[in-house]
Amino acid sequence: MSEADDEVLGLLASAVAVRPPDSLLDGIVDAARGSRPSGQAIESLGGGRKANPAEAFVQTVDEFAALLTAADGGAIVEPYGWSVTQLVAHLVEVDLYLGRQLGLWEHEIDESLEADHLALTEGAVRAAVRADFADTVARWQQVSGDLCAHISSLDTEAMRRRIKFHMLDTRISTVLVVRIFEVWTHIEDLCRALRRDAPPLDAARLHLMTGVAVAAIPLGMLLGKLDDGGHTARIVLTGRGGGVWNQSLRLGADPGEPSVTIVADAIEFCRLAAQRIAPVDLSAEVEGSMDLALDVLRGASVFAA
């Protein structure tokens, strides 16, 4: 992804987590089509504050850690059928990998699997079938604690340094947003297993996530071998953390006149991006080609947590 693609763009909606009435929804779409620089948020319509990626990552990790205090290590977490112990082992492996990429420690990986987030951790997940839950959690707390301490020490210039992370060559700040996606998704997974409500995701963190999720659509379409056709999609995400984007569907290309407009809830769009809901199951308003819209949503499903 280019540096422009990495940017977290688009601040639109105020912190309202309810679906607007149709009359207001029409107004949002009309406003989205108004004259403005392509790919930028309409600030006058309620753009919000973006979180600091390092602080947001640490906050999300802390929320996951708090949930583990009430968890049963043998409980099954969907969608992969892992036990909670295996889920924590997965996160240990991802944290070790990220620390390796940041130069914090040596950690051997199978480089042939590096581009596949789930495959890279599969061995550790299998090995955790009989692992002790308390020991696994303690190991994760140690590794994640060291990782969070390092990330918290980085200044603005350091956060702009580019590293390789799976198939991406991108800035550390963008990698942290991808990791926020992952940990937040597993928080929701764990809460479903515990039959409790997930902690609310604040608008500032959600602004980071929606911007990166939209910017990643061309990459997802490329990886999915979906024909972008040189098109541009207008993405309108409503509710807290939402925004409006004119997003080229071709990686590295400038946006043009939108061929399709997709309006959806910001949180639901992030669940789509994390592959927790399918494109056909996303409640969305579409204007333009439904086939193109479905390809766009398939391309958005890129963050396998």
Features:
305 residues, alpha+beta, Nonspecific Lipid-transfer Protein, Chain A, Four Helix Bundle (Hemerythrin (Met), subunit A), 4-stranded mixed sheet, two-stranded antiparallel ribbon, 8 strands
- Beta-strand proportion: 5-15%
Note the overall shape: globular
The CATH first-level class of the largest domain comes to Alpha Beta
Reported for the largest beta sheet, the result is:
4 strands, mixed
What does this structure look like?
The chain is an alpha+beta fold and 305 residues long. The protein has two domains: 3-50 and 203-300, Nonspecific Lipid-transfer Protein, Chain A; 53-194, dinb family like domain (Four Helix Bundle (Hemerythrin (Met), subunit A)), CATH 1.20.120. It is built from twelve helices and eight strands. The strands form three sheets. The chain has a four-stranded mixed sheet with strand order 6-5-7-8, with helices on both faces. The longest helix is centred in the middle third of the chain and has 23 residues, at 172-194.
